[in-house]
Amino acid sequence: MELTVFGASGGVGREVVRQALDAGHEVTAVVRDPARLGVAAHDRLRVAVIADLTDEDALLPVLSGRSAVISALGAAGNKQARLAPVTGPALRAIVSAMDRAGVSRLAAVSAAPVGPDVTDDGWFSRKVFLPLLRRALRDLYADLAVMEAAIRASGTQWTVIRPPRLLNRPGTGRYRRVVGANVPGGRVIARADVADALLTSLADPSTLHQAVGVAA
User: Fold this and answer.
1) Which of 5, 12, 97, 146 would disulfide-bridge 72, Cβ 3.0–4.6 Å?
2) What is the count of structural domains for the chain?
3) Average model confidence (pLDDT) for the chain?
4) How far apart are CA 9 and CA 146, in angstroms?
């Protein structure tokens, strides 16, 4: 496939680029600062610098002729999401530009707390831990909720991946996945496994128009 990856210089995005290249795909990595990509040069890798991801006209050249789009965009923290939301505004522009470019398949990373609680998780998780987490990171999750709403309202063939806390450790390929819900007892997952979930969802029709929970 010919893939465009947004947020390619982030932790999940770099893993997506590496794994996609290893799988034989052609990759356009969209970044603001190419020095932060951290992926070795490759004959199937193109790096595109776009400073403003809300500029649809600037997005069109990196979308035209693509097979699919992966968004690994996300705010660096709650403060950034509060002062300058990134993910929601960017995805509004990206899905509109995808429509103009004739690209339909999209996989995007969100976060487990944006989704509904899992009843099997128990009282403490549902009534104490998650409410505190959602309050502490309310601006970050609000930005992701805007992103998800923009994706659902689009004409794309979308999949949203919702992981819990992300860890910098080797991927296992043995993570749990639940289509349409969060993973019971899911607390952490490796960024490399989230990247795998994003890539494998592109060829999995069961994930179309679904939010998919993933966790170790």
Assistant:
1) 12
2) 1
3) 93
4) 22
